[in-house]
Specification:
Elements: E1 7-14, E2 20-28, E3 39-45, H1 48-55, E4 58-64, E5 85-93, H2 94-101, E6 111-114, H3 118-126
Parallel strand pairs: 1-3, 4-6
Antiparallel strand pairs: 1-2, 4-5
């Protein structure tokens, strides 16, 4: 049985966690040929959880393994499809991020990819001192 159709449910992949989620759009092959899968991932976005955090003024720090990630382009920025996510995340308010890293961040930028150890270092900075 052929599982392909001329219609497909559009999905995006979350920039932060990498899971796919439905966008609510339907894709249609104009030639009405059965060449589309049931779900088609067409791009990047934010899942409901991370969109809510972004709207609340947070920037996601996504830890990536540089040895498993793809090579950065000439702009020295890692593309989402090149990032090998380790699963460790942290969220910082935009103002705190700009002050801590002394780097401006665009208002529409939802996340940054960081090397292993950065999130752990941040956690030690906010952990209460033991007596």
């Amino acid at each position: 049985m052929n599982d392909k159709s001329h219609v497909s449910l559009e999905q995006h992949a979350c920039l932060v966690c990498g899971i796919t989620y439905d966008t609510g759009s339907i894709l249609l092959d104009k030639r009405l040929r059965a060449n589309l899968e049931r779900h088609t991932t067409t791009g990047w976005g934010l899942c409901a959880e991370h969109q809510q955090l972004f709207s609340a003024g947070f920037v996601a720090l996504v830890e990536c393994d540089p040895l498993r990630s793809g090579k950065a382009s000439d702009a020295d920025r890692l593309k989402p499809e090149q990032a090998y996510r380790t699963g460790r995340l942290a969220h910082l308010k935009r103002a705190v991020f700009a002050a801590m890293f002394n780097v401006p961040i665009a208002a529409d930028q939802a996340c940054v990819f960081v090397e292993p150890g950065v999130i752990e270092q941040l956690q030690t900075m906010v952990a209460p001192a033991s007596d």
